[in-house]
Write a structure and sequence with these properties.
The protein is of the alpha/beta class and about 220 residues long. About 45% of the residues lie in helices and about 10% in strands. About 45% of the residues are buried.
Length: about 220
């Protein structure tokens, strides 16, 4: 059995970890690709899984060379994502997400460090009723480099006032797991893709976030 890490704060990714935002992202990406006469495929999407909006748009831009400048192309995707977050009739929590967040927030300071635009992060967490559980919300748009670079996790730790080595990250993507490892943080994962690669970088692999509750809050 793996020994549980010692930690003083928790940092969560959001998309497809706390909230099922598959439709939010897929629809925005599909619309952007349709403007290029292209279709979104699983083979394409794996190239940008876990990246922020700017880096997703950059990957598509480098792949298909659209007529728009990169900055304009990035703005197109960002605006589509924010519109989708605001218009989505329902944003469903991932299994165990609300329960784990509420249980941990009674003991530790929490942050969300996500590749979604900050507006989208706020909307999603408000819909789930857990916005107040987080002391810090940060988008990787706010730091020089998105995941898999560690910048957003290090910035979240700094805003929480906790050393990076004392932070426990919850992630689902390979880019996120790489970012947590680069930041020197422990990382629990619920892999959403590239399972074996994510698992190799994880402190512990979970089936759902619900599995973390008896590990971290045993008397809950």
């Amino acid at each position: 059995m793996l020994e549980l890490p010692s930690f003083a704060a928790c940092i969560f990714d959001m998309d497809d970890l706390l909230v099922d935002t598959t439709r939010v992202w897929n629809t925005a990406e599909e619309r952007l690709l349709a403007r290029l006469g292209q279709k979104r495929t699983a083979e394409l999407a794996v190239r940008w899984n876990g990246l922020n909006a700017a880096d997703v748009a950059r990957t598509i831009h480098e792949t298909f060379h659209p007529p728009w400048p990169l900055a304009e192309f990035q703005a197109m995707l960002r605006e589509a994502l924010i519109a989708n977050y605001r218009a989505a009739p329902e944003l469903a929590p991932m299994p165990g997400a609300v329960e784990l967040v509420r249980a941990l927030s009674e003991r530790y300071p929490l942050a969300v460090a996500s590749g979604s635009p900050l507006e989208g992060i706020g909307v999603a967490l408000e819909r789930l009723g857990i916005r107040g559980s987080f002391a810090v919300l940060i988008s990787s748009e706010e730091v020089p480099r998105g995941k898999p670079a560690p910048d957003v996790f290090l910035a979240a730790a700094a805003r929480l006032g906790v050393e990076a080595a004392r932070c426990l990250v919850f992630e689902d993507s390979l880019a996120g797991a790489r970012a947590a490892r680069a930041a020197g943080m422990s990382c629990f994962t619920v892999p959403s893709a590239e399972h074996d690669k994510v698992a190799a970088l994880s402190t512990r692999v979970l089936r759902t976030l619900a599995d973390a509750i008896p590990l971290l809050v045993p008397e809950h």
